[in-house]
Amino acid sequence: MSRETDEWEAQEERRIGSHLGYLDRFSKQNLSEFLQQQQRSLEYPALLDYIYDIALVFYYQGKYDEAMRWYERALAGYEKALGKDHQSTLDTVHNIAMVFQNQGKYDEAMRWSERALAGHEKVLGKDHPSTLDTVHNIAVVFDSQGKYDEAMRWYERALAGKEKALGKDHPSTLDTVHNIALVFDGQGKYDEAMRWY
Q: Keyword Repeat, does the record have it (predicted)?
């Protein structure tokens, strides 16, 4: 997940503003009372989506501690309201793993990635794009630690699945191809890297 343009920032700031406006309408109530009230209503999952989006904004800004606080709130709510195997819950688990990976906390990143992978495989299957994104991110965790053989094994699994599910020219597939090139580049195997670039 990376921000590509300033246009993204403006769009997300407008989006977060509307979410915060929703929360502000209820600011006179005690927050825990408000959340308890929302848990009993059909709007609670929508509120959780807003909380998740706030975490995402902090993540994209590189404010990982803030992102983690909001992701933990979203995760607790999703698990309670929708269950541990719901896609929204698993997406949150996946993003928590990404926060840990970006902080260099690789053991934690791997623990959360494995949880996301198990859930995605169970609910969506091994060849679903969300599952394959998690496989790709497990490779990134190994790659970040210089564990190139393990990284390559996971990248190859992600690549095979993405080519089958999405096609060879899909941006997600090409992202995995690029990361394979980076693994070779990081090992000084420049001829192999050029073959993948």
A: yes
